Amino acid sequence: MKNTIYKTIRERILYLEYKPGQILNEKVLAEEFKVSRSPIKEVLSRLEWDQFIRVIPRTGSMVTEIEFSRIMNVYQVRFEIESFETNLAKEKLSSAHGNQLKTLYKDCESLLDNKDPKALTQIDIALRNILHDAAGNPVLADLSDGLYSQTFRVWFSVLAQSEYRDEVLAVLTELKKIMECIISGDKNELVTIRRNQLLNHFERLRSKFLGTIGASTGQFF
Prior knowledge:
By secondary structure, the protein is mostly helical. The protein folds into two domains: about 1-65, Winged helix-like DNA-binding domain superfamily/Winged helix DNA-binding domain (Arc Repressor Mutant, subunit A, Orthogonal Bundle); about 70-215, Up-down Bundle (Four Helix Bundle (Hemerythrin (Met), subunit A)). About 70% of the residues lie in helices and about 5% in strands. It contains ten helices and three strands. It has helices spanning about 1-15, 25-35, 35-50, 70-90, 95-110, 115-135, 140-160, 165-185, 190-210, 215-220; strands at about 25, 55, 60-65. A three-stranded antiparallel beta sheet has the order 1-3-2. A hairpin with a 3-residue loop joins strand 2 and strand 3 (about 60-65). Helix 1 (about 1-15) packs across helix 3 (about 35-50). It starts with a helix and ends with a helix. Keywords: DNA-binding, Transcription, Transcription regulation. One of its GO terms (molecular function) is DNA-binding transcription factor activity.
C-alpha cells in the first residue's frame, strides 16, 4: 500500500499536478488514501530523500521548487551516465528492440497533430527502458532513472506550452536514428546520437528558462 501511495504522489509531483511550492497536508493525504498518518509520513520521508519535497517545520511538506542551476548540474551527470549506458547497450540492441522502436515511432508520429504531453513522456520512458534492457545493468538503470526524474518537471512544463511539437519532432528524430543504426548494423554512432540528442534537449530547455540561445555548450560542460 505504501508503495502505491508513493508512486501516486510521486507521479502527481512529476506531472505538475502538485505544483512546485505546494504544501502537502498529511491529514488530507491520509484521508484520501484511507490510511493512518504513519504510512503517509514514511512516504513523504522517502520523497524528501528523492528531493521531491522538503519538510518545513510547523508548516508541512512542500513540493520542491524547480531550481535550474541545480538542473544544469544533474544534466551534466546525465550526459556521462547515459553515454556510458548507451555504450553498453549498443552491442546488444537486437531486431526485437528494433521492432519495439518501430511501434514507438508510429505512436510518436500520431502525437504531432494530437497534443498529449503525458503520452510523449511515456514514449520517451519506453525508449529509455529499451536501452536499459539492452545494457543489462539494473544498477545503472536505477541511477539513470533517478537523474532523469530530477529533470523531468522542467521538460514537462515545456511540453505543456508552445514547444510541444518541437519536442515530438526531437523524439521522432532520435527514434529514427537509432532504428537506422540497428538496421545498418553500424551501432558505433549510437553513443554520439544519444549524447547529441540529450545536449540538444538541454539547450532547448535552457533557452526557454534562461534565454541563453547561442551560448556554446562547451562553455558550460
